[in-house]
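subagent[fold] <- orchestrator: predict structure for attached chain, return tokens only, no commentary.
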Amino acid sequence: MEVEYRRIPSSVIRLFINKYNLSYNQDTLDKINLIMDSPKNINVTTAINSGQYIVFDNEINSYARGDLSWNELTRDAKERYFEQSRAFEDLGGELKKVAPELSEKLNHFYNTANRIIQP
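subagent[fold] -> orchestrator:
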């Protein structure tokens, strides 16, 4: 069975809005949601993979909050992080027009040059 999933999950967006106390009116939040629901951010996978992505996304969220270090992430969570990073490359320009502060914070988070890859 195929299911749709977001390349960058909404939980990451909410986390960054809350983490940095970014305040947006409802119109801006609606525009952010439209970007996150755009075809550029939607992929199709199996239901099993979709369930695993939730686990990896939770690890990435813990990393973003500072609860885990990069080295504590599982290899699969790191791979999911890089998938999210590639998705941000596709969506960052649109997000910057709507929410420049959020885009800047996400750009720093998803800038893979900031990560040290451990085998």
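orchestrator: received. Logging for downstream: Strands lie at 2-6, 42-46. Residues 70 and 116 are 8 Å apart (CA to CA).
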